[in-house]
Amino acid sequence: MYFIDTNMLFDYKSDFKIILRIDTDFVANRKFLHVVISNSKSHYTVKKYDVEKNSLIEILNEKEFK
Fold it and tell me: Is 66 domain-assigned?
């Protein structure tokens, strides 16, 4: 079981949706959590976390996240 510091997630004051997706990097044998925060139909932010270290790795833009 993994725990994420939710203070890193909720920094929006408007209505938004959150989608969570866990991906595994098989080369590095590590798991990452992608948190997609959408506050409209055309804009969203993706935050990438290292689930084993419980730390934010990077913030991706829409084009980098597939």
Answer: no
> pLDDT, tens digit, for every residue of 6-61?
555 555 555 666 777 777 777 777 777 777 777 666 667 777 777 777 777 777 66
**Residue 45 contacts residue 37 (beta carbons within 8 Å):** yes
Tokens of 55: 């730390």
Residue with tokens 């798991």: 31
pTM > 0.70: yes or no: no
Instruction: Give the domain extent around 46.
Output: 6-60
Residue 37 lies in a domain: yes
**Domains contained in the chain, number:** 1
Angular region, 63: left φ>0, alpha ψ -120 to 50, beta rest = alpha
CA 56 remoteness from chain centre: 8
